[in-house]
Amino acid sequence: MLEHLSQLASVIFSKKMEKAKESTSETTLRHPLLLSKLKKPPKSKYAFASAMIASMASLLAGYNIGVMSGAQIFMKDDLKISDVQVEILAGSVHIYSLVGSLTAGWTSDCIGRRNTLLVTSIIYLLGLLITCAANNYFWLMVGRFVTGIAIGYMVVVRIYVAEVSPAATRGFLTALPEVAINAGLLFGYVSNFAFAYLPVRLSWRIMFVVASVPPILLGFGTFSLPESLRWLVMKGQLGKAREVLTQISGSPEEAEAQLIEIKEKAGITREDTEVVSTQNYSQDKNIWTELIVTPTPVVCRIIITVLALHFLEQASGIDAVVLYSPRIFEKAGMTTTKDLLGATIIVGLTKTALIVVPMLLSDRVGRRPLLLSSTAGMAASLIMLSLVLQMVGDFVIAPTWIVAVCIMAVLSYVGFFSAGLGPITMAYSSETIPLKLRAQGMGLAIAVNRLVCGVVAMTFISIYEEISISCTFYIYAVIIGFAFVFVYFCLPETRGKSLEEIEVLFGKK
């Protein structure tokens, strides 16, 4: 009797275990994040290589800012242009980039993220050639206009990297474009220093000529890149999407689970698995209406958050510091061109070195802690810089300690920016905007970013000549203080969540 009861209990228990396994398997398949928790996904070298190649476009954007900080000194002497023309020349490229950033979403939806990167490299190379050949202010502005369009198109880099990055390493990989920007900025500063001793007419042209190598490499590199898997899903090319996702995720099971979730977010049913659609998604749905005119509460919150973050990032004055750092050091008491450009190189080194912080920590400690510490540090650095520059007027010849503290304040400011606000703003934006709105949404965010950046760059000299340079930096300090408050109260944490889960996160109170 006991033996029969024991056998019956054993059969019932084994059946329950089988059902539990089936239930777990089904639940795991429906929820990719659960699968990733049960089995930690390996780091994808394929995704890393793709992000590295795409990030070369961001290197061009950084070089453009860095090289202009020193080249403007020689342009002014060579072409006999005024300070007002200099600041318009330096800042207008950001205004011109609005053309590219507002059309990049439509272009990338039509021809793909990868092909848009190829177009970007061609336009940037054309802008460089026009700038180098310019013999008057008009042609300089034409060259900057073409270059600006290319810089606007570079929003696609952020979209592409976010869409090919696994959730477990997305914080690291989406920081690579920011690393490239800072590396480009440093190369621009080094280029200023290296060619400063050439004849004035030749020096600034050579500074721009050396920037022609990266767009050529990027153009050829795009042929080895995979297309964005989420773009492939929107186009119905699910077979290719599955191949890319398998290489990125590291296992066919996880790839299939993630593909199911991406299909659901894109509005594709399971029965459509192998159907290839040739229609452009943005033609099927009025993306701009859904994005701006009649957004859902979730989309509305995401867009307001992203746009506000981009506005505050640039309104903090970061481009004024990196673009006009030689002038800032000159106000602090430096005199020779060699010292000014040498100190600027140190700024570039610091800004590039500190980018490693978000790369290593954003996936461990989260986005919010880095943003809060970054904005607090930037505000403190700007207050210190303002106090020091205010004291310069009390001396006929500024003492060495004034110059040293000024340099330290600038280094602290750009270091805190690179350690949080700079890279996290872009990464946070690219991962929070929903899939079907991502291209246009990021284009709108970059448009706000570039517009504010252009206004800051084109007004910095005029403002500090009116109210003093120390008061100008006090204003920037107040703005970055508002950024700290905004991050603390309005930004949810997105660490470790899939791009599809983040949309649900913003639907919570």
TrEMBL record:
<feature type="transmembrane region" description="Helical">
    <location>
        <begin position="145"/>
        <end position="161"/>
    </location>
</feature>
<feature type="transmembrane region" description="Helical">
    <location>
        <begin position="370"/>
        <end position="389"/>
    </location>
</feature>
<keyword id="KW-1133">Transmembrane helix</keyword>
<dbReference type="InterPro" id="IPR005829">
    <property type="entry name" value="Sugar_transporter_CS"/>
</dbReference>
<feature type="transmembrane region" description="Helical">
    <location>
        <begin position="46"/>
        <end position="66"/>
    </location>
</feature>
<feature type="transmembrane region" description="Helical">
    <location>
        <begin position="173"/>
        <end position="198"/>
    </location>
</feature>
<dbReference type="GO" id="GO:0015293">
    <property type="term" value="F:symporter activity"/>
</dbReference>
<feature type="transmembrane region" description="Helical">
    <location>
        <begin position="340"/>
        <end position="361"/>
    </location>
</feature>
<feature type="transmembrane region" description="Helical">
    <location>
        <begin position="442"/>
        <end position="461"/>
    </location>
</feature>
<dbReference type="InterPro" id="IPR020846">
    <property type="entry name" value="MFS_dom"/>
</dbReference>
<dbReference type="InterPro" id="IPR050814">
    <property type="entry name" value="Myo-inositol_Transporter"/>
</dbReference>
<keyword id="KW-0769">Symport</keyword>
<feature type="domain" description="Major facilitator superfamily (MFS) profile">
    <location>
        <begin position="50"/>
        <end position="495"/>
    </location>
</feature>
<feature type="transmembrane region" description="Helical">
    <location>
        <begin position="401"/>
        <end position="421"/>
    </location>
</feature>
<dbReference type="InterPro" id="IPR003663">
    <property type="entry name" value="Sugar/inositol_transpt"/>
</dbReference>
<feature type="transmembrane region" description="Helical">
    <location>
        <begin position="473"/>
        <end position="491"/>
    </location>
</feature>
<dbReference type="GO" id="GO:0016020">
    <property type="term" value="C:membrane"/>
</dbReference>
<keyword id="KW-0812">Transmembrane</keyword>
<keyword id="KW-0813">Transport</keyword>
<comment type="similarity">
    <text>Belongs to the major facilitator superfamily. Sugar transporter (TC 2.A.1.1) family.</text>
</comment>
<dbReference type="Pfam" id="PF00083">
    <property type="entry name" value="Sugar_tr"/>
</dbReference>
<keyword id="KW-0762">Sugar transport</keyword>
<dbReference type="InterPro" id="IPR036259">
    <property type="entry name" value="MFS_trans_sf"/>
</dbReference>
<dbReference type="InterPro" id="IPR005828">
    <property type="entry name" value="MFS_sugar_transport-like"/>
</dbReference>
<keyword id="KW-0472">Membrane</keyword>
<feature type="transmembrane region" description="Helical">
    <location>
        <begin position="291"/>
        <end position="312"/>
    </location>
</feature>
<feature type="transmembrane region" description="Helical">
    <location>
        <begin position="117"/>
        <end position="139"/>
    </location>
</feature>
<feature type="transmembrane region" description="Helical">
    <location>
        <begin position="204"/>
        <end position="225"/>
    </location>
</feature>
<feature type="transmembrane region" description="Helical">
    <location>
        <begin position="86"/>
        <end position="105"/>
    </location>
</feature>
<protein>
    <recommendedName>
        <fullName>Major facilitator superfamily (MFS) profile domain-containing protein</fullName>
    </recommendedName>
</protein>
